[in-house]
Design a protein that fits this description.
- The structure holds 2 protein chains of 2 kinds.
- Chain A has a 6-stranded mixed sheet, with helices on both faces. A 3-stranded antiparallel sheet of chain A has the order 2-1-4.
- Chain A is built from 9 helices and 9 strands.
- Chain A has a single domain, classed as 3-Layer(aba) Sandwich (Rossmann fold), CATH 3.40.50.300.
- By secondary structure, chain A is of the alpha/beta class.
- By secondary structure, chain B is an all-alpha fold.
- Helix content of chain B is 85%, strand content 0%.
- Chain B contains 13 helices and no strands.
- The longest helix of chain B has 37 residues.
- The chains are: A alpha/beta, B mainly alpha.
- Chains A and B meet through helix 3 of A and helix 9 and helix 10 of B.
Chain lengths: 256, 267
C-alpha cells in the first residue's frame, strides 16, 4: 500500500450526510472535514445524538456521504474492507460460538480462514491473556474479558484502522477503567490507527493523541486538540495535572 | 449421591425440601388421575348415569383390548400417526423455508402479509369440501389438511424469530463485509434455534388437530375415523377409547420434541 502513504490514512473532505426516513430527512453531518494520520489515536466527542456514530459508519463504508468525500488510503472505503476493523458498544459475541470461533469470525466472513491466519489470530488471543478461555462460551467470561475477546476479534483480520464505537460504555465503571487501559495498550503495541467515538470526555482524554469536538446536529467539527500526553497509559493520564485542564476546556466546548 | 455428601448440612436440607415438594406434585398428579377414573367407573358401575352414554374406564380398556386382538387398533394408530408425522414434517420444513424467503425479501414480506393474516384467521375446516374434491377421500387429503393447519403457525413464528435477530450483530457482520447469505448462515439461523424448538412444540399440536380434522371430513381409517364412526353408531366406548389413544400419542410426540430440545439446547 506504499502508493497511498503520502497523504493521511483517513480523510473526510467537506462531508455532508442526510438521513432519509418516511417522516422526513435529517441532516446528520454538515461540511465535516478532518484527517487522521497513520498510528494516530483520535477520539471524537460530541453532545449525545449529534451523529458521532455516523462518522464511523461513513469511515467504514456502511454509509455513503450525500456530498463531499470520505477517503481511506486515498479511496472511498469499501464495506468490509480488510484494512478496517469495527468495534461496537457491546461485545456482540455470538453466544453459541466459543471464544475461539468468535475470534475467527471475521476470517470466515472475509473468506480468509486459512490455517495460517487462524494461527495468527489465536496467537493474538494467547498474547493478550485469552489463551485459557478459547474453548469457553462467552457467557462464562467476565464483562472485561468479553470486551477483550471482542477486540481480538476485531484485530483478527489484521485491520490497519480501528473504528471504536463507545466500546467501554456497556461496562461498569471499575471494569471500564481497566478495560480501557487494556484496549489502549493492545492498540498501541499492535501499532494500529484508531478512531474512538465517545460521549465520555475523560475517556477521550485518557486514550487519545488528538480529540475532535463535534457540534450538536448537524454535526460539524468545531475543534481539534492535540493532547501531548505521548504514550502515557490512560490510568496515569487521569492522575496528571493536565487532565483536569483538558476536561474543563472540552466540557466548555461541548456545552457552548 | 456423592454430591450430597460433599455439601453443607443446610444445603442438604434445602435439596431435601425441593425433592419432597416435587414428590408431592408427582403423587398428586397420579392421584388426581386415579381419583377421576375411579369416580367415573363408580358412576358407570352403579348405573347413576347410563354407561351406554358415558362409557367407563373398564369398558374403554376392554374396547382397546378388543381392537388390539384383531389388529385393527394398530392399523388405525399407524394410519393417523403416519399422516400426522408426514404433515408435521412437511409443514415445518416448508413453513421454515417460506419464512426464510420472507425474511430475505422485504417486498415479498409486504406483499404476502395480508394473505398470511387472512389464511391464519380462516377456519381451515371451511376448505374441507375443496380438499376432498382435489385430493380424494384418502390420506392425501388428510396430510394436506394437516399441513394447512400447521404451516401458517410455522411461517408466522419462524418469521418473527428471524426478524428478531439482534440489529447490532447484523451491523457487526455488515462492517466485516458479510453478504446477506453469510448473515443468514452465521447469525440469523443459529440465533433462531430456540424459536424453532418453540415452533416444533406448537406445530406438533397443530398437526394433530389437522390430521384428526382431516379424518373427520374424509377417511376410511385412522383414530379420527374411529371417533366419527363410533359417534354415528352410538358406540361411546369406541369414541372414548380412540380419544384416549389420541391423548397418549399426542403426549408421546410432544415428549419426543421436548427430548429433541434438550439435546439441541445442551450444545
Amino acid at each position: 500500500m506504499n502508493e497511498h502513504q503520502t497523504g493521511p490514512l483517513l480523510e473526510f473532505k467537506d462531508v455532508s450526510l442526510t438521513y432519509h426516513t418516511k417522516t422526513g430527512e435529517t441532516l446528520a453531518a454538515e461540511h465535516m472535514s478532518f484527517s487522521v494520520s497513520e498510528g494516530e489515536f483520535v477520539a471524537v466527542i460530541g453532545p449525545s445524538g449529534c451523529g458521532k456514530t455516523t462518522v464511523l459508519s461513513l469511515a467504514a463504508g456502511l454509509l455513503k456521504p450525500s456530498s463531499g468525500e470520505v477517503l481511506v488510503y486515498g479511496k472511498p472505503p469499501a464495506r468490509g474492507a480488510e484494512y478496517l476493523g469495527y468495534m461496537l458498544q457491546k461485545d456482540e459475541l455470538f453466544p453459541w460460538r466459543n471464544v475461539e470461533s468468535n475470534i475467527v469470525l471475521p476470517l470466515e466472513i472475509k473468506k480468509m480462514n486459512t490455517p495460517e491466519r487462524r494461527k495468527q489470530a489465536l496467537a493474538l488471543a494467547e498474547k493478550y491473556g485469552l489463551g485459557g478461555f478459547l474453548k469457553h462460551l462467552p457467557d462464562q467470561l467476565s464483562g472485561g474479558m468479553r470486551q477483550r475477546a471482542a477486540l481480538i476479534r476485531t484485530l483478527a483480520a489484521k485491520p490497519e484502522i480501528l473504528l471504536l464505537d463507545e466500546p467501554f460504555s456497556a461496562l461498569d465503571y471499575q471494569t471500564r477503567l481497566t478495560v480501557c487501559d487494556d484496549v489502549y495498550n493492545i492498540i498501541r503495541s499492535e501499532k494500529k490507527t484508531a478512531i474512538l467515538v465517545t460521549h465520555d470526555i475523560s475517556e477521550a482524554i485518557s486514550v487519545a493523541d488528538r480529540i475532535l469536538v463535534l457540534s450538536a446536529r448537524p454535526a460539524r467539527v468545531t475543534a481539534s486538540h492535540k493532547l501531548g500526553f505521548g504514550s502515557t497509559v490512560p490510568l496515569k493520564r487521569r492522575e496528571s495535572p493536565q487532565f483536569s485542564g483538558w476536561f474543563e476546556t472540552l466540557w466548555r466546548e461541548l456545552n457552548a | 449421591m456423592k454430591k450430597t455428601l460433599s455439601c453443607s448440612p443446610e444445603h442438604a436440607l434445602y435439596l431435601k425440601r425441593i425433592k419432597k415438594k416435587s414428590a408431592i406434585v408427582q403423587v398428586a398428579r397420579a392421584g388426581l388421575l386415579i381419583a377421576l377414573l375411579g369416580i367415573w367407573e363408580l358412576i358407570a358401575g352403579l348405573q347413576l348415569v347410563d354407561p351406554f352414554i358415558i362409557s367407563s374406564p373398564s369398558r374403554i380398556a376392554v374396547m382397546i383390548a378388543d381392537l388390539a386382538s384383531d389388529g385393527s387398533l394398530f392399523y388405525h394408530i399407524g394410519t393417523t400417526l403416519w399422516e400426522t408425522l408426514v404433515g408435521f414434517v412437511i409443514a415445518v420444513a416448508l413453513g421454515t423455508g417460506i419464512a426464510l424467503l420472507l425474511w430475505w425479501s422485504e417486498t415479498m414480506r409486504r406483499v404476502l402479509e395480508p394473505y398470511i393474516v387472512v389464511l391464519n384467521s380462516l377456519p381451515k375446516i371451511a376448505l374441507g369440501p375443496c380438499i376432498i374434491i382435489w385430493f380424494g377421500s384418502g390420506s392425501a387429503s388428510i396430510v394436506f389438511m394437516t399441513i394447512l393447519v400447521a404451516i401458517i403457525v410455522v411461517i408466522m413464528n419462524m418469521l418473527s424469530g428471524f426478524m428478531a435477530t439482534d440489529k447490532n450483530k447484523i451491523l457487526l457482520l455488515e462492517s466485516m463485509g458479510a453478504s446477506k447469505l453469510q448473515i443468514l448462515q452465521k447469525l440469523v439461523i443459529p440465533s433462531a434455534i430456540p424459536e424453532f424448538i418453540g415452533v416444533l412444540k406448537i406445530s406438533v399440536g397443530m398437526a394433530w388437530i389437522g390430521s384428526v380434522m382431516g379424518e373427520y371430513i374424509a377417511s376410511k381409517a385412522g383414530l379420527g375415523y374411529l371417533i366419527v364412526y363410533g359417534g354415528q353408531v352410538m358406540r361411546l366406548d369406541l369414541v372414548m377409547a380412540s380419544t384416549f389413544i389420541l391423548c397418549v400419542l399426542a403426549a408421546g410426540m410432544y415428549a419426543v420434541v421436548a427430548l429433541a430440545e434438550k439435546l439441541l439446547v445442551k450444545k
